[in-house]
What we know:
- Chain A has helices at 2-29, 31-39, 62-70, 118-131, 133-138, 164-170, 176-179, 238-247, 265-269, 300-307, 312-319, 349-358, 389-404, 416-426, 438-442, 449-452, 465-476, 480-497, and strands at residues 44-49, 77-79, 85-87, 90-94, 99-104, 142-147, 152-157, 200-206, 211-216, 229-234, 252-254, 274-280, 286-290, 324-325, 380-385, 409-414, 431-434, 500-513, 517-518, 538-539.
- With 540 residues, chain A is α+β, with helices and mostly antiparallel strands.
- Chain A is globular and about 80 Å long.
- Residues 16-39 of chain A have low confidence and may be disordered.
- Helices cover 76% and strands 0% of the residues of chain B.
- Classes of the chains: A alpha+beta (540), B mainly alpha (338).
Amino acid sequence: MKKTYLLISAGIIIVAIVGVMVSAPTGFFNPNQTTQQTQNVTRTLTIGTVNVVKTDNYVKDYYMGIFSACFILDPLARVDASGNIVPYLVNWTTSDSKVWRLTLIVDTKWHDGQRVTAEDVAFTIMYLKQKDPNYATHFQFVQSASALDNRTVEVTLSKEWNSFVVGLAATRLMPKHIWSSVAEPASYTGNDRNVGCGPFVYGGFDAASGTMTFLSNKDYWRGPPNVDKVILKMYTTTDAMLMALKKGDIAATYAYAKGIDPIYVPSLLEDKNVTMIILPNFGVDNSLWFNCMRYPYNMTEFRIAISYALEYSDYVNYISAGYAKTPTRGWIPDCWDYYVPKPKLMKNASYAGEILSSIGFLDRNGDGWREYPNGTDFNMRILARSDISESLKLAELVKRDLEKIGIRTQIVTADVSTFQTITQNTKDFDSAISRTTFWGMIMYAGAGTLYFDNRNMGWANVGDPVYHSVVDEIIKTANQTRVRELYAKLQDLYAENMYAIPLYWGKIIQPYRSDLVSGLVYDTMYGILGKDTWFSVVVK
Amino acid sequence: MEGLNDPAMRASLNTSFFIRKFVRYFTLVFTIIFLNFAMPRLMPGDPLLFLFGEEVYGAAIRNPELIQSLSAKYGLNKPIFDQFIIYLGNLFRGDLGYSFSYGRPIAEIIAERVPLTLLMTLPPTLLSLVTGAMLGLHLGFNPERAHKKAISSLLMVLYSVPPYWMAIVAILVFSLWFNLTPIGGAPSPGMSIITGVSHMILPFSVIALFNAAYVAIIMRGLTLEIAEEPFIITAKSKGLSYIKFKIRHLFIPSLAPFLSIAAIELGFTFSGALLVEIAFSWPGMGYTMWQAVVERDYPLLQATFTMTALIVVLANALADLASYAIDPRIRLRENGRN
């Protein structure tokens, strides 16, 4: 008996001693300390992210594509603070929206010393169209792209298409001398695969420790960045990333197209060194999307009735911790410069009930639930993302509100793949809750048309000919004044028809440690990793 | 039963046992391979979604030429039966295929992830098997003693705590508050040994604690059952030393079920510990499988699930053989079926 005790005790003691021996010195060797020591020699910025890269090929890996656009490559065009697409490497002109002339406006070199020319621009457009499924859509109407001289490229489209410039903002310039001989870019593993012309040179990826390194490009055309080395540290959970921020292992956090969930803010505010950049979100944080091709969601009166049943202030307070506002009926967030003021959404349950009753949705059998006009049971299904807790919480609140006006509601959960397949492809849903991204807002004809029009992604499955005609005219119209008028018309249609109900307009919350870094600039498209940050950032 | 003393009879019975087991495991392996092929395809969700990204997918699926060419490229345009035959053929040639989402051969991905996974799961699993067995054995004999009751309750608490939560609390306490360990990431070749080990301490401890609690609870139960047997009274009356008594009369009779547990535990070390891997940002097999599910990467799903299942089956087969070899009761039971 005693021997067994002794054996167990000895085992525990040995494990404990080994643990202490190994753990104790770690404090002296932790990444934070190493970073600070290195900073004496180089200005190193460590940023945490939950966007985990699987393979460092930017054609294949979505997040590698994002990080390469932020660090090692330059885009042809960029998005300004108001959401407009403006020149970066190239400027453009067109007289008929079919033939576009792109002009290189900067003189720059690839990281391997070769000069960037118009040949690279023409090559990139045609190569991506042929080889990358994403660009097959961005450049679907491109017929040809050819260099007229060292600085000019002529692109011919098969139809008038003003959204061509959106494709330019999505395009990261690729070196022709490297990629022209690569038949399968998605599986290319050559050492030169990450040669670009951006402000940083690729420094390598360690998948095990989840770190990716970028070194400053001293020859960058805007001058050398203010930081010599950037280390991206990847975390698989936001909890771990924010603990690393509090600990000082990382100077800032990053998540593409979004900030952090507002529920984390109170805990972060307890740390005096953690500061937040808080900006309006250009995407609509969450909307209730109706399948406008399915009865009764194809009835405008039905959708309007639902819009009066919802308690918007609860979504602002419970889902966004107050970092949001109640939207207007026009759906488009008020941070867009083409925003047109519309009446604010508000709850009026009795009015919602009156509308439903007027279109025949009544509780005929007295069980507390409204039936279809023909007397059969009515059940509204809400599709929500099972992998986004905020989406599920929101669905519960919407269900609560709908049940208060007698609509029996069922929440159907689906992971990202199933959700997108249902909403974009099979269309077998009644309603769905989901957010839009900034990028999605500017794609197609802009103003969120991507999410509405049933000829495209069309979560709302809108097949209304009036809506389609406005979208078609925007796509063909080069005159920006007319485009503004058409965007105003779209907002009228959103408000009158309620194809989707915006549940709240949220904010982007970007935390960073003010004792480790300052001068971060928030870019509409790439957040704090946008190009301007590298010329104003100060590593402390 | 007298025939069991005849060597020729015994050899014949052994052969019969091995054939029965082989047929059973072969059927099991084939079923696993079939299910691993079929189940991902039964899941709703389009595997092409992640080739486009969600904003582009809607337009892309309305372009039939593009969809056809991509389906052909990834072999998704062939009839399901043809896909299964191709998959079987490749599997028997040792070709695990090509991952949609990584754009790399799956064998390469597995070769990269398995060592990291084993580094995280194997040492704590081995330790937990040994300590859990010892502790369970101790707690199962004379269980009414107060300190044994208290330890048993503590084990139940430990086993009830979700490992993910335990991992997050461990990070909070040891990484954030006491600054003793890094917050996440696996060791990598460029690191010093001390830094590398510091990355392992917390995942090691969480897995070891959780598994040891589980093994100890099971072992305690087995010991409680055996302690009721009449031969225990005889053994006690022989006046054996405490250790000898426990090993010979308590541990060895419970070795067969313990081996089954150990086989499953060791088999699953290859598949990683998904939630612990996520908590510690550890890019192991569990995390890879989870990503493959989310992204509907059929080839990667098939390969990782099949490999895990095969290893668990192999470990179980070995445990079966070992139990047959060491436990005469099992030999009697198995051969009695004939």
